[in-house]
Structures are given as C-alpha cells and as structure tokens.
C-alpha cells in the first residue's frame, strides 16, 4: 500500500517534470520546425522543379536537376575545393587551439587577457573579418606584402588563394575551439596527473596518455561540428576572393555554387539540387565519423 | 543521448537552406524607398524632404549595395513584402515586369499633368514598358567619360588628353604613362573583365560591334567587329594596365585616386566620389575617345560611342500607399525635380534637356564631358535581356584567362557567344 502510493506520487511528479521540460524546449523545437525543417522540405521539393522567377510558376521536372548536377564540371571542382579546405582548416585549427588551450590552462600572469584575445575573433562578424583580411591580402596596398617586402598574389594565385581562405578560417575558429577545449581540460581531475607523476609519466607522456583520452569527448564534438561547418563554407571565399580573380575557380565551394545559382542567376531549382546533394554528402560523412566514435572516444 | 541530439541538430542546421527575407512594414504616413547608391542619398533626401513638407508623409530611405539590393528585393518579392518605391535597372526590369510585381502606372500618368513620357529618353521609357503598360518612370540617365589624375600626368611630363582623341590615342597615352612610371609601379589605365558598362562595351560599339542583337535573340560576341575590338583591348590597352591579379585586388577608381594609374573610364554616377576625395583637385574629365573608322583624323558621326543607361522609379504592385508613392515619384521625375536632381549633382536627368546643371554641380570640377557626348556622340543603351545577369557573370569570369593571355581573346569571344546564345534561347 505504502509502496504503491509512493510510486504513484513519483509518476505524477515525473509527469509534471516532463511537462515543464517540454514547455521549456518548446520554443526551440517550434523554431527548428519552422525555420529549419520546413525550408528543408521546401528545398527538397524545389530540387525537382524548374523554378520560375520569384517562386512563381514552378514546374515539376523530375530528376533533371540532379542529372545536370552530375554532368556539371563545376561540381567536382567545388567538392575538391570544399574538402581540401575542410581538411586543412579543421586539422590545423584543432591542433593549434589544443596547444593554446594547454598553454592558457595554468596559473600565470594575465591569463584572462590571453584567453580574451584568443576568443575575440569569435565575436566579430564573419563578413567584417573577411573584409579586413581582404585588405591585408591586397597585392598592391596590403599590409602583408608591405611587411614582408614581397609581391605575392595572395588572393589571385590559384595555388595560394585557397590557403589564404583557410588561414582566415583557422584564425576565426581558434577562439571557439580553444574555449571548448579549455572547459574539457579543466574537467580533468588533477589526481590523474599526480598518480602519473609517481609512476614516472610526465610532460609529453602525460599529455598523450591522460590529457588526450580524457579530452576525447570534447575533441570529438569539435571535430564533428568543425567538419560540418567547414563543408558549408561560403562567406570567406565569397567575400575575400574577387569575382574576377584567377583563383575564383579554385576556391568556389559547393555552397558558393548553390548561392550563385539560387540567388545570382535565379536558378532556384538547380541551386536546391546542389544543396540537397551536399546535405547527403555531409550526412554520409557524419555517419562515418559517428562510427569511429567508439574506437577512440572515452566517456570516463 | 545528449550527444546524439547535438549531432542531429547540427546536421539539421547543415541542411537548412538560407532563406533570407527582410520585412518592410510601411505605415500609412510613411513611404519606404530602397536604393543602391549611397552617393545619391543626400541629394534625393533633400528632394524628398521638400515633398514631405508639402504632403505630410515621411520618406524612409534604405540604402544597400548593388548585390544586396537585388537579393533583398527578390526575397521581398517572393515573400510579398517589398518597399513601396524602388529603383529598377535594365539588368532585372523584364523579370519584374513579367512577374507582375510592379504597379501599372498608366492611369497615374494620364491624370498627372506634370508627367509626359514624351519628355524622357526613349530608350529608358521603352525599357520599362511592356504591352503598352508603363512600369517605371525614368529617373536619370548616365554616360561614360574618361577621368585622369593630373598629378600623374604632371609627374611624367605627359600632356593632358583633349576631347578630340581616339582610342589609339587613349592606348598610347596609357602606354606612355606605364613606360614612364614602370619604376614607381605606376600604370597607364585600368580595365578589368568586369569593367563592362564603363569599359570595353564602349570600345566594342565604337568599333561597330555589338554585345547583343537588336531583337535580343542572339549574341554579338562572335561578330567580327566585336572580336576586333576585344583584340584591341588585349593588344593595346591591357599592356598599359596593372596585372590582372592587381586589378582583381583593387577597383579602378581606388587606383586612380591613389595615383596608381593615370587614366580611367568611369560613369557619371561616380562623379561625386571623385569630387568628395581629398585630392579632388587632381582629377579632370575628358570626353570618351572615338574610333576613327574612316581614318580622316576627325570624329565623324557614329565614331564616338558611349553606353548609356537609365534607372527607373517603380512602385510595388502590392504597395499599401500607391497614391503617396506616385506623388513622391512625380516629385522626383517632373521637370522641376529632374532639374533639382542635376543641380544637386545626384545624377544627370532622365528628362531630356535637364542635365546641363549637372556639368557645374561640383564647383571647379567640370563634368561637361558627360553631357557633350550626347551631342557629338552616339548613345548606345546598355545591352540587356531578361537574364542579362547570367551572361554578364559569364563575361566577368570567362574573360579572366584571355586577360592573362590576350592570344585567347578570339576563342573566348566565340565561347561566350555560344553560352550567351543558349541563355537567350531560354528567355
């Protein structure tokens, strides 16, 4: 009797908790449904249409956009551009931010100043960042060529330009990654290091055998979101590289192509096909990254 | 679980297309106006203020850059939220008229004594009409002239150009500057792949070529004269320009103002930015060169060509304040408003014969080069078709290789003619 009463009490209580929880997440869920899922469905539908101007007179044309997509020579080039950017940007950014996080994760003078400085790029608007870098890269008037006394075509030489875009991408993501990693570092109990020290493992050894494994959940999160973010690259090449630059073909990402077709050339249907295609590519990559999770991520 | 949700959310965001949309709410006592040229804001604001005082209706301007403007307008049009009054342009007008997004102005024009379409440049009136319906009132017109930096000419002891110069003269003066300034990194002139309206389009028409046929059904890029003109650009003008890399880095007006080049072609809509520069006294304008086709040493009819274009004032078909919007447009476009626009140096007028004050609108800076070409030159309306934006994009990008290696110029022209024809076939 007593037992039963207790359980009933706990269910109503749980119900109440659940109700409140739903209420709390409702704004986000509704926002997601309206702002994300509805456009996805609409974009999916558009990708099978030849679209008229201003969303009028859309006619269903089946898979034609996708057939065109697989014949379009710009697509493989854009995929190459996107993947090599992602490869460089994600690895370098994570490696650097890990080093920075370890460096600022200790007691020293002015540590908050350093943390603030590294985090600053995060709070700047990407468009503003791109504009400033564009001027720094300027061949004739830019500070980089003035400083080094060189005459390098930073944003127009196809061999260099994509790396310049990656540099800006790395620079802007350092702070965010660093703060996340710093959080992860501070969660690692000091006892592990003390115990390791007694066993004779210090410095590099401790870093690889204690820090990295215990940081792996955070690392996993950063790698996963970092790759997804990098594969959606658009604003940096669009803002930094001029349309008349020789290098524009070697920095055009898939999302850039989508933007051009959908918004500049008024071919929404084809643009939608591009972006749905990219969504599938990203989903597949995400799936494989998830698969690797068990192999190297340790949740205590 | 938490991780899974996080990942799900991330992939959802990855998939979401960016569906931009800006909302513009207009109250009954406000007319919202969207434009893309900040240079013109102060002058237009002044005319609008005078109108507001009379009508008691406020005017709210929004200024965006060219690309943002069209993205905003298209998103607004698709979502049913457009500004009340906005600029139309040859690059996009037909698309908007076809979709029925612009207000039919015929009845307003009939009732308004101040507006008679006969008074405006016919090319501009025609551009904004379809099947006998007028969808925009000409706001202005613009022409092209050459601007030079006197400081650069003085430094190298080169004579200033005069109105009676040919494109050959233009090229040789540019080359003289480039040779003299080689050690200082100073170049003759600037013409990039995207310098179309205020650049190589003019040379093509001066030399008898064309960009698009009159019926807008076929490309003129494969015409013999067009190719000859582009070869002239490649062989005579580009050698006097900074490298194409440099030109992709920095716009031409910036280079001229900073003394990096000596000579440049620009449109009348840009005059104010030269006048506002700190070293405004260094700049002077001269008429666009002519092409001496019959080689008799003087400029005969048709040998001097300037591309001209004109914006139009349009009203959104679904505007909640069409009467007020019309009244404002009428104030901008009637004879008094057009004269005022020229006096204030906003632009030259769309109303024929109201542009003279523009020549003297900027104090010591003589802008008569823009108005003189109307008398002794041939005005060619800026080439357009329904999807001009698509082939103009192609021009900018596909000429890059030919700019870097002018021997590719002819092949590029033929290739562009082909891709342009397939776009025109779709229209």
Write structural notes for this entry.
The complex is a heterodimer of chains A (300) and B (427). Chain A is mostly helical. Chain A has 2 domains: 45 residues; 231 residues, MetI-like fold, CATH 1.10.3720. Chain A has 13 helices and 2 strands. In chain A, helix 1 packs across helix 13, helix 7 crosses helix 9 and helix 12 runs antiparallel to helix 13. In chain A, 34% of the residues are buried. Chain B contains 19 helices and 14 strands. Chain B has 427 residues and is an alpha/beta fold. In chain B, helix 14 crosses helix 15. In chain B, 50% of the residues are buried. Chains A and B meet through helix 1, helix 9, helix 12 and helix 13 of A and helix 1, helix 3, helix 11 and helix 18 of B.
Number of strands of chain B: 14
How many structural domains can be distinguished in the coordinates of chain B? 2
State the strand order across the main sheet of chain B.
2-1-3-12-6
**Strand proportion of chain B:** 5-15%
Helical proportion of chain B, percent range: 40-55%
Q: Looking across the biggest beta sheet of chain A, what order are the strands in?
A: 1-2
* Shape field of chain A: globular
**Unreliable segments of chain B (pLDDT under 50, ≥5 consecutive)?**
1-27
SS class of chain A: mainly alpha
Largest sheet of chain B: 5 strands, mixed
Label the structural class of chain B. Answer: alpha/beta
- Quick one: CATH superfamily of the largest domain in chain B? Periplasmic binding protein-like II
Name of the top-level CATH class of the largest domain in chain B: Alpha Beta
Radius of gyration of chain A using CA atoms only: 25 Å
Mean pLDDT over the full residue set of chain B: 90
Give the % helix of chain A: over 70%
Q: What distance separates the N and C termini of chain A?
A: 40 Å
Instruction: State the CATH topology of the largest domain in chain B.
Output: D-Maltodextrin-Binding Protein, domain 2
Low-confidence stretches of chain A: none
């Amino acid at each position: 009797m007593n037992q039963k009463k207790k359980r009933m009490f706990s269910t109503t209580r749980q119900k109440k908790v659940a109700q409140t929880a739903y209420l709390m997440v409702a704004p986000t869920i509704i926002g997601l449904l309206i702002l994300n899922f509805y456009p996805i469905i609409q974009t999916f539908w558009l990708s099978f249409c030849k679209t008229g101007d201003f969303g009028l007179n859309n006619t269903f044309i089946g898979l034609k956009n996708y057939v065109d997509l697989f014949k379009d020579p710009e697509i493989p080039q854009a995929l190459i551009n996107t993947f090599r950017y992602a490869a460089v940007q994600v690895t370098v950014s994570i490696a650097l931010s890990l080093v920075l996080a370890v460096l600022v994760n200790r007691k020293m003078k002015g540590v908050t100043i350093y943390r603030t400085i590294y985090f600053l790029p995060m709070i700047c608007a990407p468009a503003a960042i791109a504009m400033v870098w564009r001027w720094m890269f300027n061949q004739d008037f830019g500070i980089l060529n003035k400083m080094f006394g060189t005459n390098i075509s930073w944003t127009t030489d196809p061999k260099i330009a994509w790396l310049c875009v990656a540099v800006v991408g790395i620079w802007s993501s350092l702070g965010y990654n660093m703060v996340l990693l710093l959080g992860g570092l501070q969660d690692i109990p000091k006892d592990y290091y003390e115990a390791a020290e007694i066993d004779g493992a210090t410095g590099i050894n401790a870093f690889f055998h204690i820090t990295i494994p215990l940081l792996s959940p955070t690392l996993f999160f950063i790698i996963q979101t970092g790759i997804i973010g990098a594969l959606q690259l658009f604003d940096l090449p669009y803002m930094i590289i001029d349309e008349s630059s020789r290098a524009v073909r070697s920095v055009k990402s898939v999302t850039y192509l989508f933007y051009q077709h959908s918004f500049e050339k008024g071919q929404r249907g084809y643009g939608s096909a591009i972006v749905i295609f990219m969504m599938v590519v990203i989903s597949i990559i995400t799936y494989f990254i998830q698969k690797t999770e068990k192999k190297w991520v340790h949740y205590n | 679980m938490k991780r899974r949700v996080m990942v799900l959310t991330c992939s959802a965001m990855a998939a979401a297309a960016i569906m931009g949309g800006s909302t513009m709410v207009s109250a009954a006592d406000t007319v919202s106006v969207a434009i893309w040229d900040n240079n013109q804001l102060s002058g237009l604001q002044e005319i609008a203020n005078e109108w507001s005082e009379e009508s008691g209706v406020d005017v709210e301007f929004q200024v965006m850059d060219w690309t943002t403007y069209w993205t905003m307008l298209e998103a607004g049009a698709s979502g049913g939220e457009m500004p009340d009054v906005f600029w139309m342009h040859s690059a996009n007008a037909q698309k908007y008229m076809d979709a029925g997004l612009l207000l039919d102005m015929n009845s307003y024009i009939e009732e308004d004594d101040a507006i008679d379409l006969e008074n405006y440049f016919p090319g501009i009136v025609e551009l904004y009409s379809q099947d006998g319906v007028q969808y925009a009132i000409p706001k202005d017109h613009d022409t092209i002239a050459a601007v030079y930096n006197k400081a650069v000419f003085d430094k190298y002891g080169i004579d200033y150009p005069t109105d009676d110069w040919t494109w050959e003269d233009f090229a040789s003066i540019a080359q003289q500057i480039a040779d003299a300034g080689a050690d200082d990194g100073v170049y003759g002139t600037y013409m990039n792949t995207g310098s179309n309206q205020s650049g190589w389009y003019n040379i093509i028409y001066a030399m008898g070529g064309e960009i698009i046929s009159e019926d807008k059904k076929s490309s003129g890029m494969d015409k013999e004269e067009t190719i000859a003109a582009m070869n002239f650009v490649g062989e005579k003008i580009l050698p006097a320009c900074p490298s194409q890399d440099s030109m992709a880095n920095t716009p031409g007006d910036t280079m001229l103002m900073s003394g990096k080049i000596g000579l440049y072609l620009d449109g009348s809509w840009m005059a104010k930015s030269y006048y506002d520069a700190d070293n405004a006294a260094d700049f002077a304008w001269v008429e666009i060169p002519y092409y001496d086709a019959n080689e008799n040493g003087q400029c005969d009819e048709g040998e001097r060509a300037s591309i001209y274009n004109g914006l139009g004032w349009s009203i959104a078909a679904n505007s909640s304040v069409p009467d007020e919007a019309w009244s404002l447009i009428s104030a901008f476009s009637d004879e008094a408003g057009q004269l005022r626009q020229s006096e204030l140096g906003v632009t030259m007028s769309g109303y024929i014969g109201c542009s003279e004050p523009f020549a003297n609108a900027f104090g010591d800076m003589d802008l008569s080069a823009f108005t003189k070409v109307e008398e002794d030159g041939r005005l060619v309306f800026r080439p357009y078709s329904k999807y001009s934006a698509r082939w103009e994009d192609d021009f900018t990008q596909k000429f890059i290789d030919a700019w870097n290696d002018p021997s590719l110029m002819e092949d590029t022209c033929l290739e562009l003619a082909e891709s342009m024809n397939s776009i025109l076939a779709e229209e």
